[in-house]
Amino acid sequence: MLLHSEKILAQDVMSKEFITFNDNVKAIQAIEIMVQKDTEEIFILDNKNQLIGFVTLTNIFKVLKDNLYQDVSLKKVIIDVGISIDKKTSLLTCKNIMSKNKINTLPVLKDGQLIGVIKKEKILNYLYRNLEKSQVRLNHIINSIHEALCVIDKKGKVVIWNEKSEILYDVSSKEILGNYIQDFFPNAMIAKVLKSRQTVKNVYHMPKKDYHIMINVEPIWLDGEFVGAVSTDRDISEVKKMSNELQKANETLQYLEGEMRRVIGEHLGSIIGRSEKIRKRIEIASHVARTEATILITGESGTGKEVFARYIHDRSGKKGLFVPINCSAIPNELFESEFFGYEKGAFTGASDKGKIGLFELAEDGTIFLDEIGDLPLPMQAKLLRVLQEKQIKRVGGQKYIPINARVLSATNLDLKEMAEKGEFREDLYYRINVVEIDLPPLREREGDIPLLIHAFLRELCEKNKKDILGIESDVLKVLNNYYWKGNIRELKNTIENLVVLCRNETITMDLIPEYIIKESKKKKYKIEKSFDLNKSVEKFEIDMIMEALKLSNGNKVKAAKLLSIPRTTLYYKLENYNLECR
């Protein structure tokens, strides 16, 4: 028999170097490993380490193209094992099985577990080491393998040059067989091995335009004597193309992430404040962050509902994305396709490649439904079904896609009242409101306004390429006394306005919009809620005295005239109210 291959068993030549994954691994992750490890296939095991199939780069790439290069599970890509052998199978039987079934890889199993892999190139390499003893060329095998194969003797003459080599290097076997390899390829790697007699693995080169080749060269020894070398040159052009496209996709993703950070601002992921009311909300958010409970964040417009949602996501430990959706900004006719995606040709104007939905984009992450009160009733019913069944179906699609995304919602409306009026589904209200976090308006967060002002000042000076500006104490007092109907959003916009208009190193009173000053004074002189007349009169007197001293540049005589009181009375009140120390 051929080289006594009936005596050589699979266990003698099988490789124990192979890559395995569980079937829940993502396809893009598998591609990265395969490109890094320079392999064309990986084997898939179940949770008991039993072999269930394998996947190839070509098959993954086809599925990724069909899914718009979105990450998919290897479950969609698995090819059944089909044929396997045990370690006692003869090398000749292995060769015959491969030839008959036109395959290049055979898994070796023991009790259903993968213990080795037989590759056609491994068989060939084994056979070529015994080439001179066998006197057999194995042309029917070498011309069927995918790699370009070249074998030279110890003098450098070509003894094997298969059809793949002819195609790859544009040299026919008739021209090169029996001639020196260096006459055709002066820098051939296999010729260098004649001198070094050392194995060469995975050397990359481009023999011609758009051809990417990985070369492996092995010296051939017989009974301790060097007799030649064998090279297998693998065309990785398709792998290279896939790697380039993957890199392009990663670069696009990095760009989008950068744009997202630029738009949302660097402080969106943190909560600024130390008032008792905001601390209580932070404690609740931290406590529920790692649970799977749906959370409804309520509060006036501009109170920071998305900030809290991102805070919860960041502390949830979830690996997926935070995907915010403003329900009030999506046209009614586009809700379903935006939320759940669509298949190609689903409707007029649809992309011919289809589109992934926002729920799929948030897989293993968090989807934030802002302004959920504006969600149309028909979409409320579909959202409720998704929350209950944990699966979606794309527009125009036939199959259901499981989803695993934490849902956070927010509104400035009274959903309970809307539910009572039939304007919001009551069952959806209770489904999204397992935990409610009601954010206080800025005017009720005592002591937080100065903190927010200084934080925004640093951020906005950097954004507008200015040195950090100072701010007069009177400006802080006015801003602290203002009602802030628009809450934190209005405060931040006001600070940016002051930063942009400021021409000096300090923000002064003349930069503050007149409406803010007027509203601030109304609050300033408002009678205390306790209706304590003495305290109100005392506060009024102090404010009037300080205003008179400011107008008179500290001259007490002039201040007393402005107040229409004797100078001695002014001195008495200054001492009584301890104003000399202020």
List keywords for this structure.
alpha/beta; 17% strand; HTH_Fis; five-stranded parallel sheet; 26 helices; 582 residues; ATP binding; single chain; CBS-domain
Structure, described:
With 582 residues, the chain is α/β, with parallel strands linked by helices. The protein folds into five domains: 2-125, Roll (CBS-domain); 133-239, PAS domain (Beta-Lactamase, 2-Layer Sandwich), CATH 3.30.450.20; 265-440, Rossmann fold, CATH 3.40.50; 443-524, Helicase, Ruva Protein, domain 3; 533-581, Arc Repressor Mutant, subunit A (Orthogonal Bundle), CATH 1.10.10.60. Helices cover 43% and strands 17% of the residues. The protein is built from 26 helices and 21 strands. The strands form seven sheets. The chain has a five-stranded antiparallel β-sheet, sandwiched between helices. A five-stranded parallel β-sheet has the order 12-15-18-11-19. The protein has a three-stranded mixed β-sheet with strand order 1-2-3. A hairpin with a 2-residue loop joins strand 9 and strand 10. Helix 2 (27-37) packs across helix 12 (237-264), helix 20 packs across helix 22 and helix 25 (556-563) packs across helix 26. The protein is elongated, with a radius of gyration of 38 Å. The termini are far apart. Residues 262-269 and 525-530 have low confidence and may be disordered. GO terms for molecular function: ATP binding; sequence-specific DNA binding. InterPro entries: AAA+_ATPase, AAA_lid_NorR, CBS_dom, CBS_dom_sf, Homeodomain-like_sf, HTH_Fis, P-loop_NTPase, PAS. This is PAS domain S-box-containing protein. Pfam families: AAA_lid_14 (PF25601), CBS (PF00571), HTH_8 (PF02954), PAS_9 (PF13426), Sigma54_activat (PF00158). Residues 271-500 form the Sigma-54 factor interaction domain.
